[in-house]
Design a protein that fits this description.
The protein is α/β, with parallel strands linked by helices. The protein is built from 14 helices and 16 strands. A 7-stranded mixed sheet has the order 4-12-11-10-7-5-6, sandwiched between helices. Strands 1-2-3-15 form a 4-stranded mixed sheet. A 3-stranded antiparallel sheet has the order 13-14-16. It starts with a strand and ends with a helix. The relative contact order is 0.17. The model has no long low-confidence stretch (mean pLDDT about 95).
């Protein structure tokens, strides 16, 4: 690749590709969005970096206020970090330390779901649930109670909730927090569940005093149809992790939002402080990119455009559902998935055959095993989305034969 703009990638040989997967899901606004670029250019002339330690700066302070105003009610505090994995690490460490400092010293166990993906740092891997990525690191990981994943039909959802309820009833006084990807388990194969499941997870956490960590690194910033996925459930998590779309895909940057009750658990003495930070936490350039992205959401009706594209994606998926080899299709917001085979299998090569055929026809559709998915820019033009779906149809026909 030599350049990128909007939903299009340009290659060194002059060809162009439609970016159908948002370049690992980060390009929520498309590549080189003008509001993000302008914000970065202006900030670069003033101050590229300063340690957010004993000092602060206007871009970071103002961004924290904006995020708190936009987030589900009650998420009033913001802790900056570098990327999605570290946003989750912050939440895990904060949840553990908070429970310890309130006297619940037995609460050392986290609960996560099969198929979960929360990043590649060791803490994030500990609460992950994809063996292809995580199994070899088992000796390094802390204890996690893993329950059946919620992806699938209503029977799967109920079985997942029953498994979670069982763990919390048996081990409730040991559980520090439950970690969930609300509405969509991305790396598991774009497995989807309804808002009601998130509401019930919140209720189960409350029943035993466990915190709820919502990993919205992927699903946040309009991807599911609302700015944050938790909005659809009417749920406020205790900690919410953000990255990817936070800067419109321009820079690695992340934030972990917390309630006032969690924040209060770190007050009172120096030894109660949250000792965690990286050199680039809250850096001015990342903050500026985030301001540019939020400006786009607030001033350009990005969510309205995304909802229109979501309806068009739904129609396109209905066509793909009729193709040979397709067992199911699913959609949440502007996330679509086509499953080739009856179970999501990361090691299956059929998706890679679709990928190669799509590349030859002008689209970048990097699969998850036998799941071909669509995570285009929320700003993708209708005609471009239509072309992407047509290319996918031809590629699936070619790959499945």
């Amino acid at each position: 690749m030599t350049s990128a703009a909007g939903a299009t990638l340009t290659l060194a040989d002059g060809r162009t590709l439609i970016d159908g997967v948002g370049s690992w899901w980060v390009s929520a606004l498309g590549h080189n969005h003008p509001r993000v670029v302008e914000a970065l250019e202006a900030q670069l002339r003033t101050m590229a970096h300063v340690a957010l330690a004993g000092l602060t700066h206007e871009p970071a302070a103002r961004l924290a206020a904006r995020l708190a105003a936009l987030a589900p009610p009650g998420l009033t505090r913001v802790f900056y970090s570098d990327n999605g994995s570290t946003a989750v690490e912050v939440a895990i460490r904060a949840a553990f330390q908070w429970q310890q400092q309130r006297g619940d010293v037995r609460r050392r166990v986290f609960v996560s779901f099969e198929g979960a993906y929360h990043g590649d740092t060791i803490g994030a891997v500990s609460v992950g649930g994809i063996d292809e990525f995580h199994a070899r690191f088992g000796p390094l990981l802390f204890e996690t109670a893993r329950v059946r994943g919620p992806g699938g039909n209503a029977q799967h959802w109920e079985a997942s909730l029953a498994a979670l309820s069982d763990v919390l009833q048996r081990r409730g006084d040991e559980i520090a927090a439950v970690v969930i990807e609300p509405l969509v388990q991305g790396a598991a194969g774009m497995l989807m569940h309804p808002p009601e499941l998130v509401r019930r997870v919140r209720e189960l956490c409350d029943s035993v005093g466990a915190l709820l960590i919502a990993d919205e690194v992927f699903v946040g910033f309009g991807r599911t149809g609302t700015l944050f996925a938790c909005e659809q459930a009417g749920v406020t998590p205790d900690l919410m992790c953000l990255s990817k779309g936070l800067t419109g895909g321009a820079l690695p940057f992340a934030a972990t939002l917390a309630t006032e009750a969690v924040y209060d658990g770190f007050r009172g003495a120096r030894d109660r402080m949250f000792y965690y930070g990286h050199s680039y936490c809250g850096n001015p350039l990342g903050c500026a990119a985030a301001h540019g992205a939020l400006d786009a959401f607030e001033q350009d009706d990005v969510l309205g455009a995304a909802q229109a594209r979501a309806a068009e994606l739904e129609s396109g998926l209905a066509v793909l559902a009729t193709l040979p080899g397709v067992s199911s299709v699913r959609r949440t917001g502007l996330i679509g998935a086509v499953q080739l085979g009856h179970e999501s299998r990361y090691g299956d090569d059929v998706g890679w055959r679709v990928y190669q055929a799509a590349l030859r026809s002008g689209a970048y559709l990097r699969p998850l095993g036998n799941v071909v998915y669509f995570v285009p820019a929320l700003t993708i033009p209708a005609a471009t989305l239509g072309t992407l779906l047509e290319i996918a149809e031809g590629a699936i026909r070619e790959a499945v034969g």
